[in-house]
Amino acid sequence: MKIIILISIVLALVACSETTQNNNNTQEQQDTVANVVDTLITDGVKKQAEPTSFLQFYQQLVTAIETKNTAAFNQLFYKDYGLYIIESSGAMPQVSKVYEIENYQTSGTKLGFFDLPFDSLSLMPLKEKLPKVVCEKNSYDKQGCFQESINPLKDSQIWHYANLNEKEVQAIQFISETIKITVVNTYNYTFYFSQINGSWQLSFIDLRIPCTA
Fold first, then answer.
1. pLDDT surpasses 50 at 10
2. Chain centroid, CA 106 distance in Å
3. To 10 degrees, what angle do helices 26-48 and 2-18 make?
4. C-beta of residue 29 within 8 angstroms of C-beta of residue 18
5. Could you tell me which residues are beta bridge partners of residue 185?
6. Per-residue pLDDT tens for 50-72?
7. DSSP 3-state helix, strand, coil percentages of the chain (rounded to 5)?
8. Residue 50: which residues within 8 A CB-CB, separation 6 or more?
């Protein structure tokens, strides 16, 4: 509706202008109108375009990791909030916050993020119940990559078991409440995705492997 109104205003202004100019300018005016109308329509289509679906966003994540593209990966999380990476530090979890993934190293082995093993990363997550940790023949009761619209991280209150100060706890609690989808790839890690201002963002990665010391 806004586009139609803007187009009508442009046409009305040009019509008024035509009454005060000679016919030699008619084609130029028509071209101007066409350009303005095209711009308005194009901008309107962009604004009305469907937002990136979750699976499209997840594929962007997979591609960035597979190609070790730091610039592309850094676009997948908000710089204002950073990306939280969880790993084990003895019996307690360790939480690191990064604003540029190239600056991350694991606490023990000092591996860079893209040096981590991402087995079967290309699997797209199936929308079904997340696998349960069983610690039997396998760590999980089913194998594969799965997504569910739940927020187990918020319920875990992991920040109370990590070495974080009060300000850090408040920040991580805030971002944890924005999680909309959790993905568990039983061949590698657990990923948490938030939806902030209408767009998908990667907010947490849990590198811990269940049932391992």
1. no
2. 22
3. 170
4. yes
5. 145
6. 568 999 999 999 999 999 999 99
7. 40, 20, 40
8. none
Give the per-residue pLDDT at 213.
61
Q: Residue 71: CB partners within 8 Å, gap ≥ 6?
A: none
* Closest to 186 measured CA to CA, from 140, 123, 126, 124: 140
The answer to whether 183 and 191 have CB atoms below 8 angstroms apart is yes
Kind plus residue range of the DSSP H or E element containing 34 = helix 26-48
What six digits make up the tokens of 197?
Answer: 């201002």
* Contact by Cβ (8 Å): 171, 178: no
132, two tokens: 């349960």
What is the arithmetic mean of pLDDT over 75-79? 94
Query: From CA 84, how far away is CA 101, in angstroms rounded?
Result: 10
Cβ neighbours of residue 112 closer than 8 Å, sequence gap 6 or more? 102, 104, 105
Using alpha carbons only, what angle is made at residue 168 by residues 163 and 169, rounded to the nearest 5 degrees? 80
Structure-token match 């040009």, residue found: 14
The values of phi and psi at residue 136, to 5°, are -110, -120
Three-class DSSP category at 149:
coil
The pTM is what?
Answer: 0.76
For the chain, first and last CA: distance in Å? 61
> Residue 123 corresponds to which tokens in the numbers above?
């699997």
Output the pLDDT for position 204: 97
